[in-house]
Amino acid sequence: MESQMEAQRKLLRQKEDEVAQIQQARSDLEKELALAKEEAHAHKRAMDAAKKARIPQVSELRKPENIWLPLDIQEIEDSPIPASPALTPVVQELVPTPTEPEGSHKEEDKRNAAEKEESPSMEPLMPSTDKGKQASSTFEMELKKYKASRIGKIKLGSQGLEVSAQGLGCMGMSAFYGPLKPEQDMITLIHHAIHNGVTFLDTADIYGPFTNEILLGKALKGGIRVKVQLVTKFANSFEDGKWVIRGNPVYVRAACEASLKRLDVDCIDLYYQHRIDTSVPIEVTIGELKKLVEEGKIKYNSLSEASASTIRRAHAVHPITAVQLEWSLWSRDVEEEIIPTCRKLGIGIVACSPLVRGFFSTAPKLVETLSNDDVRKQRNMLYHVVYARVNAEGEA
User: Fold this and answer.
1) Which residues fall within 8 angstroms of residue 183, CB to CB, at 6 or more apart?
2) How far apart are CA 320 and CA 350, in angstroms?
3) Does residue 237 belong to any structural domain of this protein?
4) Could you give phi then psi for residue 272, rounded to 5 degrees?
5) Which of 146, 177, 207, 271 is flagged as catalytic?
6) DSSP reduced 3-state for 166
7) Tell me, what's the pLDDT at 135?
8) What does the pLDDT look like over 309-343, one tens digit per residue?
9) Is the residue at 203 inside a domain?
10) Angle between helices 249-263 and 282-294 (to 10 degrees)
11) Domain for residue 249, yes or no?
């Protein structure tokens, strides 16, 4: 008799532990769901407020299929749309669903029925599983919606490169936009972007200079490199206080080797000529980039702020995967010739500064909020935008 009672007590303790585990799992799921819902509500409130204030949103831009709209760090900070809460793990990563062999549920049901017959007095202690199953189904639906909100993938150009539809411009993390940001905070931000599906990371050797590439190299440690498409650029440098643009083969190769070392990678996914060196025929520059592709040091080559004629000449030497340029409600001159040329040649378009360096986020008050060492305050805002539109012919 005592052994039977001890067995029942042992069984009762096991059931209580199972109930506690279920309740804890449901509690964790409820917390995650509440965070996801709050993020959605906050985003909707911000969007509604922005519409009332007549502030243009990125979603209002007409975006062709293979256009990538990056946000740099300052635009994220200045945007009225709140960023997602700090790194929220996916619920299924916190509470993984155990895998069970086929038919195991039927066997478990039989065991439960047998236990119920043997211990009828324990029935009030056994929780009903119907509500639990219904709640689990609801949580799964919400999780699917949450995952569906992550950034998707698109084809960039016609050479086979696939990237996230939204990219992260990393320039402001290390240069030009005010004081230097804490390195660990920026690494956390990069990881947060990757966690949410943003895998197209944009940097350049001139950002810092050099420190932004080093930052990216640190952020991509621990197996993260294989999850992203890494973009960097060459051609710009400061020498004796002057801005110098170079595109000769020796410089191109040296710049690539240096970027690979700073990024601590074997290959760059997309390598831009940041600005066009008009003293060197574009065919010569692209010829060296072609060699780097053949050697496996870069996967795809591309241009930034190039004219339509330069794009056509470069593409004739070696396929250009993408062209980066400023394209927004503020800057639309590229629509006349450059955009049609890229589309005709099957070249992807990377539209940088869609929020005009934060101007569309905070409107005229932007300059008032900037620190004195912010390049946007040092120059007139309009001048800064025009300055960035230097094209292959050297026009501003």
Assistant:
1) 215, 218
2) 12
3) yes
4) -95, 145
5) 207
6) strand
7) 59
8) 999 999 999 999 999 999 998 889 999 999 999 99
9) yes
10) 40
11) yes
**pLDDT at site 359:** 80
pLDDT at 345: 98
Q: Compute the distance between CA of residue 173 and CA of residue 189 in angstroms, rounded to an integer.
A: 10
> What's the structural domain count of the chain?
2
Do residue 216 and residue 114 come from a single domain? no
What is the token pair recorded at 395?
């026009």
Contacts of 109 (CB under 8 A, 6+ apart): none
Nearest to 45 by CA among 18, 79, 76, 81: 81
By three-state DSSP, how is residue 371 classified?
coil
392: in domain: no
- Residue 77: which domain range? 58-88+152-387
SS (H, E, C) 15-72: HHHHHHHHHHHHHHHHHHHHHHHHHHHHHHHHHHHHHHCCCCCHHHCCCCCCEEEEEE
- Give the chain's length: 396
Q: How far apart are the first and last CA of the chain?
A: 95
Q: What is the pLDDT of residue 38?
A: 76
> Which of 106, 104, 126, 105 is CA-nearest to residue 115?
126
Q: What is the pLDDT of residue 248?
A: 97
- What count of Cα atoms within 13 Å lies in the side-chain half-sphere of residue 213? 23
Which CATH number fits the domain that encloses residue 356?
A: 3.20.20.100
pLDDT at 79: 39
Quote the pLDDT of residue 110: 54
Please indicate whether residue 271 is annotated as part of the active site: no
* Global confidence as pTM: 0.63
| pLDDT (tens digit per residue) in 18-46 | 788 788 878 877 877 787 777 777 767 76
* Spatial distance between the Cα atoms of 202 and 169, rounded to a whole number of angstroms: 5
At residue 209, the pLDDT reads: 94
331 and 316 share one domain:
yes
Residues of the chain scoring pLDDT < 50 = 54-104, 115, 118-128, 382-396
Give yes or no: residues 220 and 191 share one domain: yes
Burial (0-12, 13-18, 19+ Cβ within 10 Å), 102: exposed
| CA separation for the pair 237, 394 (Å, rounded) | 16
